[in-house]
Amino acid sequence: MNLMLIQTIINGFLVSSVYLIVTLGLSLVLSIMRIVNFAHGEFVMIGAYITYWFYTLFKINPYISLFLCFIILFIIGLFVYKVGINKILDEPSLNQVLLTFGFSILFQNLALILWTANAYSLPLKSNPIKLGTIFLSRERLNIFIIGLIITLLINYILNHTNFGKTLLAISQNKKAALLVGINVTNYYLLSFGIASGLAGLAGGLVSFVMYASPFIGVKLGLRAFTIIVLAGLGNINMTIVASLILGLSEAMISIYLPQGSGWAEGLSFLLILSVLAIKPSGIKGLRTE
Amino acid sequence: MNFKKFIYLTLIIIISFSTSILSCKKQSVTEQEPIKIGAVIPLSGGAFAQAGQEQRYGLIMAEREINEKGGILGRRLELIIEDDQCKSETGIAAATKLVTQDKVVALIGGYSSTITFAQMNAIASYEPIVVWMGASSVKVEHEFGPKEWFFHLHPWDYHRQKTVVEFLDSINPKPKTIALTYEDGIYGTTSAEYFRKYVEGKFEIVFDEPHKSGSSDFTSLLTKAKAKNPDIFYSVSYAGDYLIQIKQSKDIEFKPKAFVIVAPLFPGYKDSLGKDGDYVVGVNPWAPNLKIEGLSDWLDKFHKLFPEKQEIEYWVPLGYSNLMCIADAINRAKSLDKDKIIKALKDTDLMTPFGRLKFEPSEEGGLHQAFTNLVMVQWQNLEPVVVFPKEVAGGEFIYPIP
């Protein structure tokens, strides 16, 4: 295998970890509450700003800021749920889309007023790991490891704890869950908070390798939607596979197609269209009504 | 009536007349309708908003200064700023509203070439006076440059690319190979077209690929460019993309002899990149340390007015010069008559913090082009140093990157 191919595969793996971590929270909300949160990318954006400002103003280690990102976004998530999401849970999906899209615009413009439209990035000195002529970005490798740990943790919580099993039960049949006395509203509130916290954490990680700007969430959000469509509803393991498919395909197309970088960006749209046309339930997703 | 009475009466009449005349005059200054100028700039909705917010600082400073000095033609200047939200459709609506509803005397502002193209098409039938600071694509020049009512401040694409190529040509030892990447919008593609044209026969382009602005990852693009081992890496894109490209080039130890970008003096560059940002060189129409008459006083005034804004991009003095230019023309025209203002604009010779502002025909058909000169600025020890042309350089170009 030539060195270029190995470097490309590594690039693909590392970028897929960024996509995975951004997608987790969105996937959780969609699986459990059946709500497409269009403001998810903006939660990621806020996380990126939190890490940047804590580092710039108080010199807080960005890895420690990740916990703060989770907590702050968890609280913001609870607030958003209480003032908005809670009221449209049983409304038609168009209302849900409009509400979350409204929150997305609100957060973008708040960020614009508070922090201007400048792009800010953490001034972390590049220190790649060298394996002969192959290079691995240390930050991306850390994101990859953290992303994997969090995904496995969520998977464990969902499948092996009472809390997780209850969430799965609610996602499978909300009425039955209500009938057996589960307080669905509280579980919804908690899962929306956790999903928002995960988005914040993802934003913190994204700030290591990208930058904080009011519009950073838009493109990352698109990748997250592609992965969810590809993975199918309610399947965290498949989210890992779908992230890898997207990350690796983008890297391969960028390198091996003429003018590939432009084509790689269009891949998300192509995948969404193809999956919806050929297998709307995704690779191995649940079929829902 | 005796003489004493006559004198008193005359005095009373004179005083009451002059008071009424003065009050009339005072009334005309304060209560007359303000003169409206409309500006459309990107303030939200996308990456361009960063430049739009810079432009706003310059516009607001100019508006304050003009009104503090008595306005235009003795009337208050009312600057109406509209946000195009980085979208053509919003930009069209904003420009049309300013021209048809607000009935502004002139339209100023602008950033994106794509949005400008759409806006000018929409308002062309009204033939308003347009003094545009944005849009560098020659497509805009071809279409609207020949219009009598269209005045343009920002250098066109080819001015920029010509400067880059002249600069590369001046490097000793002369580089041989170039890797070129550009954002795939109208700005990037036309810049690349001119760059290819000017380097023909001088340098070999070994890598030539577009990219999407706003991408989260450029590692693959940079890996591909690195494989070609170019002397020069040249990227035509936007601030956020440069941050990632510069960082990721370090991650894969891609070390061309020079890393060239467009407009390298954007806010946050130093804080975001630290030492990784050193030695990057870029083409810019302005630098705060250029020897321009009155620039240092203007900068002092700006920092006093906006103490929170320490780093400024060239859009701030350009925005300021944009409003100053039209105000100056109206004052010289001594009228709001369109033809008279256009004539005054043609005769403009104004010293601005951006340089001397005079409108002259440009190479690709534009009738009124203000600025054409650019400089190359290199980040050295986290400070921007003008390195080209030699006549205005503040330091030597460090090449190759140590």
Walk me through this protein's architecture.
The complex is a heterodimer of chains A (289) and B (402). Chain A has one domain (3-216). Chain A has eleven helices and two strands. Chain A has helices at residues 3-33, 40-58, 62-83, 93-115, 138-160, 162-172, 174-179, 184-209, 216-231, 236-256, 260-278; strands at 129-131, 134-136. A two-stranded antiparallel ribbon of chain A has the order 1-2. The longest helix of chain A has 31 residues, at 3-33. The N and C termini of chain A lie far apart (46 Å). The longest helix of chain B is centred in the N-terminal third of the chain and has 29 residues, at 3-31. The radius of gyration of chain B is 25 Å and the shape is globular. Chain B has 402 residues and is of the alpha/beta class. Chain B has two domains: 35-155 and 291-357, Rossmann fold; 158-284 and 375-392, Rossmann fold (3-Layer(aba) Sandwich), CATH 3.40.50.2300. The termini of chain B are far apart.
Keywords:
heterodimer, A: 289 residues, mainly alpha, two-stranded antiparallel ribbon, 2 strands, globular, B: 402 residues, alpha/beta, Rossmann fold, 2 domains, 7-stranded mixed beta sheet, 13 helices, 14 strands, 43% helix
Question: What's the structural blueprint in terms of helices and strands?
Answer:
The complex is a heterodimer of chains A (289) and B (402).
Chain A: H1 3-33, H2 40-58, H3 62-83, H4 93-115, E1 129-131, E2 134-136, H5 138-160, H6 162-172, H7 174-179, H8 184-209, H9 216-231, H10 236-256, H11 260-278
Chain B: H1 3-31, E1 35-41, H2 49-68, E2 77-83, H3 88-100, E3 106-109, H4 113-123, E4 129-132, H5 138-144, E5 150-152, H6 157-170, E6 177-183, H7 186-199, E7 204-211, H8 219-227, E8 232-236, H9 239-251, E9 258-262, H10 269-273, E10 281-284, H11 295-305, H12 315-333, H13 338-346, E11 350-352, E12 355-357, E13 375-380, E14 383-388
Parallel strand pairs in B: 1-2, 1-3, 3-4, 4-5, 6-7, 6-8, 8-9, 9-10
Antiparallel strand pairs in B: 10-13, 11-12, 13-14
